[in-house]
């Protein structure tokens, strides 16, 4: 276990937590502009830990940051190396290595039924139609969801939908799973269940959340602010600093619109 | 799944979809050559017999004709006005036979089988860089979107009702379009995140 | 305490007053456009932006034209919209002669005007493909191969061509006011072209003379004009609330 100083300001030098493992993502002065406005600026860091969390206020660039990891967005400046290849290299086939779970399951599911949704990932990897259907059913059974196989996605509950979306990504056996606020519309019990599921996975995890309690048991927490890395360290330290900063600096009695 | 398909295991269900499609195409072309009752009436009897062979549920499928009856009656009226009533009757009879026969194929063929049967027809488009996977993917997406749109519309109507006290309004259409459109952008992103429509096995 | 009826009336009046006070402004697209769910991700504001990936944007745009996933999803979206509009029960308006008006052709016009020629036509074709596969998506719950044998098949054939023409006009009148451009596109593509193909087909399939067939079809024109107006208003509203979504002009 690496030692993390209590508050650690991001600096230009690259950081490696465990020198033995090779990092799956290396950011070298990465920046991202959209329509002239900078969204991310001057990010230099390496991702290597098994469980990494990301926090930040609305508009801090969290969503864009995680989209870089899956190739949904490409950096407009600097170099980004993912799985030891430049991120813009087409042969890398990022979706094969990086599973991405979106905030709203209604916006993620592509197919009308659960079975088709799961099978799609397998056909993406080259499996035939029948084969992928039967493997999808087996995969659902493995995760205790065999009862859902034939159901239309629109008829599932919110938690079931999100679980299916996670399974639909997991069936492709990615090396890294990125989750962008997956629990934001779930109740406490469902959140706890999904969280347990996520933490039990062998994949490396990058989780974005507004709920600071989600990061118990995580190895590292990144705090983004205005497109920059504000703080990077052990979850407890970053959480405490984040809470203190947000509550004192912004103040609670300011109108929302003025923030 | 909603479809005109009728669950069953009759002789017609067991025929391969491609064969049925070919048969209906040939039959329609042949039928277009004739206007005499001597051909049309046996043909009608044959089609009705096909439906009858599916049992009571099969005969219930003839309700399709009722949906079209208004249109057919209007056409007959137009013929009557122009003084060609007999010709009108034969033509409408022929139309009804063709409609029923084609519908019989739809009633006895699963959507998946139908899709697989026509899939090879998209193969030639490959030279234009068109992936033959796309039609099937497009079909799946439509089936996914259609029910979701109804949910979005119901939610908007509730919001509207809560704020105005009135129910439906055509004014809901534009916000409905905006909301569901932004959903389609997200789905496009989700598709890309999982490797896109081309797949990953190149 | 007022009697029940007048209480309800008072409530309704209060509602209407509220609406007047707000100046009906909250009806505008800006107020209805859902706030982005992500903190900073707006795919629709940069339709062909860096989002597509690191390759040169100009080149991508050309490839995007009919092939990319985003286009496929949009095509499927409008096909689903046409299907959903088929579920809207037909309205019979007395002063238009009581002819039932279905909402389905509204979807056809929207597909052409919003998506542009190629994608608009593909959306309608995809919809017709689903109908042919046996889904009861045509208004009145009709579907299957049977509907393509009916006398009105010409109108179904006319739909994708109409969407193509509507999209093409929309695309080539970029300088024009969007409301006007959408109305013209929808009228020419959605009415003129569709009827030009549909009426001869009715004549052939039903053995009627052209004028007779035209007479029979003319009863639907007032309803279609109504849909042209609706199309124009919807397109204008969407253009304000979600500009990137009017793909025929982006």
UniProtKB/TrEMBL annotation, chain A:
The keyword Mitochondrion does not apply. The keyword Mitochondrion does not apply. Coiled coil: none annotated. Keywords: ATP-binding, Nucleotide-binding, Transport. SMART domains: AAA (SM00382). GO terms for cellular component: ATP-binding cassette (ABC) transporter complex. InterPro entries: AAA+_ATPase (IPR003593), ABC_transporter-like_ATP-bd (IPR003439), ABC_transporter-like_CS (IPR017871), ABC_transpr_CbiO/EcfA_su (IPR015856), ECF_ABC_transporter_ATP-bd (IPR050095), P-loop_NTPase (IPR027417). It comes from the Bacteria. Residues 25-251 form the ABC transporter domain. GO terms for molecular function: ATP binding; ATP hydrolysis activity; ATPase-coupled transmembrane transporter activity. Belongs to the ABC transporter superfamily. This is ABC transporter, ATPase subunit. It comes from Roseibium aggregatum (strain ATCC 25650 / DSM 13394 / JCM 20685 / NBRC 16684 / NCIMB 2208 / IAM 12614 / B1) (Stappia aggregata).
From TrEMBL, chain B:
Its main location: membrane. It is found in: Membrane. GO terms for cellular component: plasma membrane. It is a multi-pass membrane protein. Keywords: Membrane, Transmembrane, Transmembrane helix. The chain crosses the membrane at residues 20-52, 64-82, 88-107. The keyword NADP does not apply. The keyword Membrane applies. Belongs to the CbiQ family. This is Putative ABC transporter, inner membrane subunit. It comes from Roseibium aggregatum (strain ATCC 25650 / DSM 13394 / JCM 20685 / NBRC 16684 / NCIMB 2208 / IAM 12614 / B1).
């Amino acid at each position: 276990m690496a030692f993390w100083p209590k508050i650690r300001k991001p600096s230009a030098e690259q950081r490696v937590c465990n020198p033995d493992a090779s990092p799956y993502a290396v950011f070298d002065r990465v920046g991202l502009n959209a329509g002239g406005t900078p969204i991310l600026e001057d990010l230099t860091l390496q991702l290597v830990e098994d469980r990494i969390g990301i926090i930040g206020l609305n508009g801090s660039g969290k969503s864009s940051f995680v989209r870089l990891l899956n190739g949904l967005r490409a950096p407009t400046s600097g170099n980004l190396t993912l799985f030891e290849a430049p991120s813009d290299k087409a042969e890398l086939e990022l979706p094969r290595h990086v599973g991405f779970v979106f905030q709203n399951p209604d916006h993620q599911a592509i197919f009308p039924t659960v079975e088709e949704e799961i099978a799609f990932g397998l056909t993406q990897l080259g499996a035939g139609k029948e084969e992928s259907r039967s493997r999808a059913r087996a995969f659902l059974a493995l995760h205790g969801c065999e009862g859902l196989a034939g159901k239309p996605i629109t008829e599932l509950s919110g938690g079931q939908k999100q679980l299916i979306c996670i399974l639909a990504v997991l069936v492709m056996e990615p090396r890294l799973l990125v989750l962008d606020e997956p629990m934001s519309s779930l109740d406490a019990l469902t959140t706890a269940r999904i969280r347990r599921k996520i933490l039990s996975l062998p994949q490396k995890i990058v989780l974005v959340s507004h709920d600071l309690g989600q990061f118990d048991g995580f190895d590292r927490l990144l705090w983004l602010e205005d497109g920059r890395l504000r703080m990077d360290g052990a979850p407890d330290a970053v959480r405490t600093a984040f809470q203190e900063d947000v509550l004192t600096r912004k103040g609670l009695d300011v109108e929302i619109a003025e923030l | 799944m909603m479809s005109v398909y009728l669950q069953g295991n009759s002789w017609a269900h067991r025929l391969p979809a491609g064969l049925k499609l070919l048969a209906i195409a040939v039959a329609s072309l042949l039928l277009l050559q004739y206007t005499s009752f001597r051909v049309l009436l046996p043909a009608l009897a044959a089609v009705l017999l096909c439906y009858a062979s599916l049992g009571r549920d099969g005969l219930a499928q003839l309700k399709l004709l009722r949906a079209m009856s208004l249109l057919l009656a209007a056409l007959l009226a137009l013929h009557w006005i122009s003084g060609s009533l007999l010709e009108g009757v034969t033509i409408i009879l022929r139309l009804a036979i063709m409609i029923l026969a084609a519908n019989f194929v739809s009633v006895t063929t699963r959507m998946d089988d139908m899709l697989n049967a026509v899939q090879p027809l998209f193969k030639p488009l490959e030279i234009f860089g068109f992936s033959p996977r796309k039609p099937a993917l497009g079909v799946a997406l439509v089936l996914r979107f259609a029910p979701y749109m109804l949910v979005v519309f119901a939610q908007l109507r509730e919001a509207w009702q809560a704020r105005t006290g009135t129910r439906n309004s055509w004014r809901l259409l534009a916000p409905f379009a905006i909301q569901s459109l932004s959903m389609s952008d997200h789905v496009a992103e989700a598709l890309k995140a999982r490797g896109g429509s081309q797949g990953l096995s190149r | 305490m007022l009697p029940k009826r007048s209480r309800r009336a008072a409530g309704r009046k209060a509602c209407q007053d509220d609406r007047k006070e707000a100046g009906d402004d909250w009806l505008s697209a800006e107020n209805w456009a859902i706030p982005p769910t992500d903190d900073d991700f707006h795919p629709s504001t940069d339709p062909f932006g860096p989002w597509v990936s690191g390759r040169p944007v100009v080149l991508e745009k050309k490839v995007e034209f009919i092939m990319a996933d985003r286009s496929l999803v949009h095509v499927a979206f409008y096909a689903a919209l046409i299907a959903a509009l088929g579920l809207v029960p037909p309205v019979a308006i007395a002063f238009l002669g009581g002819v039932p008006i279905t909402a389905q052709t509204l979807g056809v016009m929207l597909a052409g005007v919003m998506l542009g020629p190629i994608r608009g036509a593909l959306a309608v074709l995809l919809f017709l493909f689903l109908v042919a596969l046996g889904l009861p998506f045509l208004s009145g719950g009709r579907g299957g191969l049977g509907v393509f044998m009916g006398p009105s098949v010409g109108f179904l054939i006319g739909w994708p061509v109409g969407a193509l023409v509507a999209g093409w006009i929309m695309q080539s009148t970029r300088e024009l006011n969007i409301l006007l451009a959408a109305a013209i596109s929808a009228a020419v593509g959605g009415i003129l072209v569709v009827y030009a193909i549909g009426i001869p087909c009715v004549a052939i399939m039903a053995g009627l003379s052209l004028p007779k067939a035209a007479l029979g079809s003319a009863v639907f024109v007032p309803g279609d004009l109504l849909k042209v107006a609706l199309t124009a208003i919807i397109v204008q509203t969407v253009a304000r609330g979600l500009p990137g979504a009017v793909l025929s002009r982006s």
